[in-house]
Amino acid sequence: MNGVDRPAAVAGLRVAEAGPFLARLTRLDPAALVRLRPAAAGAVALWGRVPWGVLVARTVAGAVAGDLTVPATALLERMSAGRVDLPARRDHDWRWPVPPTSGEVVESVPVAELLRLGQAAAETLRSTRGRVGERVLRDALLEHVAIAVEAADGAAVEVRQGVVQAVLRMGLVTTDGDGVATVRTVGNWVGLATAHGEGWQQTGANLAVRIVR
User: Fold this and answer.
1) Torsion angle, alpha carbons of 139, 145, 147, 153, to 10
2) Torsion angle of the four alpha carbons 142, 167, 201, 77, in this order, in degrees rounded to the nearest 10
3) Could you report the per-residue pLDDT of 69-85, keeping only the tens digit for each?
4) Would the pTM of this model clear 0.85, i.e. be above it?
5) Which of 21, 34, 48, 77: CA 20 to 30 A from 197?
6) Bridge-partner residues for 157, per DSSP?
7) Are residues 36 and 55 in the same domain?
């Protein structure tokens, strides 16, 4: 049925916890999907994808029977109305892999530094608003390496501005700058995790070819 499955089972999510994440996701993309995955006992991981291709996640209290995907807008509307049933499933429309685990912590970064990076990017965009090439500059900023750290094995780990922007735009940090975020890696994924959620982006690291002489 065009990738639309029958309505999903009750998830038991609370709008106070899941609502802000869904509201921000749908503000960025009204047609966004949200993938619900069982997390720890009594918890559900909500996954979404922002328009510039970064995956974001937040874990909230609740229960769900297996992975399932629904429209984020419809889920938020039902939760806000006090309904406990989920919208019709859209499992076939979720086309992106997600990190297999929460990854390995490589480095800690003050939240205040993430806010500074976001402010600097915003000021750069404001200075070129209305000019030719504004969109090109925006895309270049999202690909810019905002944080570069070194893993235990000496490998370079690069967090792009797009991941920083996703964490900030999704409200996964406190605006007072308190706390830290951790740079994480798993496979060819690089992420930023905070106390309120995570942002992840795939790299081409696992495609590298080493010539042995």
Assistant:
1) 140
2) -110
3) 999 999 999 999 988 88
4) yes
5) 77
6) 149
7) yes
DSSP string, the chain: -TT--PBPPP----HHHHHHHHHHHHHH-TT-EEEEEE-STTEEEEEEE-TTS-EEEEEEE---SS-EEEEHHHHHHHHHTT--SPPBP-GGG------SSS-EEEEEEEHHHHHHHHHHHHHHHHHTTTSTTHHHHHHHHHHSEEEEEE-TTS-EEEEEHHHHHHHHHTT-S-TT--SEEEEEEETTEEEEEETTEEEEEE-SGGG------
Quote the number of domains for the chain. 2
Residue 46 CB neighbour total at 10 angstroms: 26
H/E/C letters for each residue in 86-110? Answer: CCECCHHHCCCCCCCCCCEEEEEEE
Whether residues 117 and 89 share a domain: the answer is: no
Q: Which residue has the tokens 């905002």?
A: 146
Residue type, 24: R
8 Å CB contact between 195 and 56: no
CA diameter of the chain:
65
Question: By residue range, what is the domain housing residue 123?
Answer: 104-207
Q: What are 61-70's pLDDT values in tens digits?
A: 988 888 999 9
Do the domain assignments include residue 172?
Answer: yes
Residue where the block lists tokens 């990190």 = 99
Whether the Cβ atoms of residue 25 and residue 56 lie closer than 8 Å to each other: yes
Does residue 10 lie in a domain region?
no
Task: Tokens for 11, please give them.
Answer: 């998830």
CB 103 within 8 A of CB 69: no
